[in-house]
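> example.struct
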């Protein structure tokens, strides 16, 4: 039995664990042990990954007794967390949020996101400053401010929900601590939703309170769960993706030079960075509800499945020279945001934050450099791959 690469111990900074390429070529659907005697199937090929993520015979229900959680003792599924639900509940809850995440709505936010980028860079370079921690000064506050603005969560409370986010997403944390963090975060958000019901503003929480909770379409507990999911996912992934993207570009100066020469390359470069880095290293989890044949392997009903997105996005049958970063590559079809019914609701916002944030950073700081070797950087203990800090300097 193969042991699944542990997190965060076996995790290269910019590349998938080296085992994945070997498994992908030899046995793209294979049994792995993730903890104890929990041994789901690991899927590493791009086409197989798309199949699992789109086929309704693979359930996302985290309350299923055979669901392959990232750690033992995972708390029961809370109301409103639609990313770990199946239709019809998934469809009912997700549909309530779609109007706030349409392409047009996110396009309207571009000015606000650009102002956030500019203000953060102004503060980071204020006075005679020539060095900073990119994570603390820019990569983390940028998506946090953006999601707070969209949701209507006071940014001054970001320290509170960041601490709770760390406890909830840590793969090494105590389950009791995770449950305590969830209860504290839910209590905070529940009270905020109730306040917005009586004192609405122009934000998602107010609309959810007035249009969904007040009408009985969603319970207060469901609304609380939905907002917590958006708050955590809305900053955690981009905050971790951003410093890795900076490192990748600094380590590929020819690619960075191309972006500095031609600003029109940035949208495609963001897609390539998403494919190349794929920060969800813990896999997307499913459980089969029927027998399914996948690449000649029979997956039985009641067996767990882990989809390794970082391996699927480096599949050589889909992407030529997949380990290379090429900002001119057509990276469409990558699975960094998942696939199928559960494809990331906030992907347009994440793309906007990365495109505007990266282009502004390299435009404002053309001499940007790292002041610590990448191999010395402390890795996140979250299910989202990243670094805890990134020391940088400029002249």
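> example.seq
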């Amino acid at each position: 039995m193969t042991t699944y690469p542990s997190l965060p111990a076996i995790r290269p900074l910019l590349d998938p664990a080296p085992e994945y390429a070997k498994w992908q070529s030899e046995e793209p659907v294979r049994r792995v042990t993730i903890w104890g005697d929990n041994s789901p199937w690991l899927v590493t090929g791009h086409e197989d990954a798309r199949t699992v993520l789109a086929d309704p015979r693979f359930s996302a229900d985290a309350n299923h007794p055979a669901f392959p959680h990232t750690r033992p003792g995972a708390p029961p599924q809370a109301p409103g967390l639609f990313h770990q639900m199946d239709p019809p509940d998934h469809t009912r809850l997700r549909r309530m949020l779609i109007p706030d995440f349409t392409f047009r709505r996110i396009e309207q936010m571009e000015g606000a996101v650009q102002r956030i980028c500019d203000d953060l860079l102004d503060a980071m370079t204020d006075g005679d400053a020539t060095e900073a921690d990119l994570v603390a000064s820019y990569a983390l506050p940028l998506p946090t401010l953006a999601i707070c603005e969209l949701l209507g969560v006071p940014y001054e409370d970001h320290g509170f929900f960041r601490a709770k986010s760390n406890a909830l997403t840590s793969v090494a944390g105590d389950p009791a601590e995770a449950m305590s963090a969830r209860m504290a975060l839910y209590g905070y958000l529940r009270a905020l939703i109730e306040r917005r019901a009586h004192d609405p503003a122009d934000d998602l929480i107010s609309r959810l309170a007035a249009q969904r909770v007040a009408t009985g379409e969603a319970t207060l507990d469901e609304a609380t769960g939905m907002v917590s999911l958006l708050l955590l996912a809305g900053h955690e992934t981009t905050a971790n993706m951003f410093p890795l993207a900076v490192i990748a570009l600094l380590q590929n100066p020819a690619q960075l030079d191309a972006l500095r020469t031609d600003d029109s390359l940035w949208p495609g470069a963001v897609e390539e960075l998403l494919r190349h880095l794929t920060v969800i290293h813990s896999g997307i989890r499913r459980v089969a509800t029927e027998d399914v044949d996948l690449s000649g392997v029979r997956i039985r009903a009641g067996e767990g499945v882990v989809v390794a997105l970082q391996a699927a996005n480096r599949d050589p049958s889909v992407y030529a020279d997949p380990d290379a970063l090429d900002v001119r590559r057509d990276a469409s079809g990558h699975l960094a945001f998942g696939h199928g019914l559960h494809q990331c609701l906030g992907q347009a916002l994440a793309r906007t934050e990365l495109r505007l944030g990266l282009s502004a950073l390299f435009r404002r700081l053309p001499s940007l450099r790292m002041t610590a070797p990448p191999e010395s950087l402390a890795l996140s203990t979250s299910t989202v791959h990243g670094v805890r800090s990134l020391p940088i300097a400029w002249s």
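> remarks
The chain has one domain: 2-393.
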